[in-house]
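Hey everyone, long-time lurker, first post.

I ran two proteins through the pipeline my lab uses and got sequence/structure pairs for each. Pasting them in order. The first:
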Amino acid sequence: MQTTAPAPQDQPLNLLADWISREQLAGELGLTRDTLARWEARQLGPPCTRIGRKVFYRRASVEAWINAQEQSRPAARTRRGRK
């Protein structure tokens, strides 16, 4: 006996699978929703998309933004040439 998968139109779309809400992101980063809203207004935080009153962040964009925040340490200064 062979079963067939439901037709694609019968399966619900998971359009937001790659997106995270502002509330979820705030929880993940240990920030408040208000902080993320201020960052959005000042264009400081990760890029976001608005759908009605809801704000969503693409997971890959958040990861890229986090990676871009990484700061390298300046090379240690040596005291060569001093006696």
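...and the second, right after it:
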Amino acid sequence: MNGAFNTGWARGVSLGSALMMMVLITVFPRGLTIAGGSPINHGILALIMWGLSAGFVHGTGFVPHNPMLRVALGPLIAWPLMGVGLAFYIRYFLR
């Protein structure tokens, strides 16, 4: 199932996205706020960080032996969760 995502381009997308999100969160954390300026829900932030971590795991080429961890740390989970974080930043910059 993950055969197409174990190629170089997919790993590059994961690593590049994770690096971009890491820089955004570190340098400009205010992007993770809601319209009133208060921080986002802790659960949503945890999901974004899970996606960021999974992006680094997949991007560096690590493949867990456990099938559940392989899915949880794979690109099918990482990309949408990092996309949620990116959506908060896009919404913040468009305010």
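Reply from user beta_strand_b:
Welcome! Quick read of the second one: The helical segments are 8-27, 42-60, 67-72, 75-93. The chain is about 65% helix and 0% strand.
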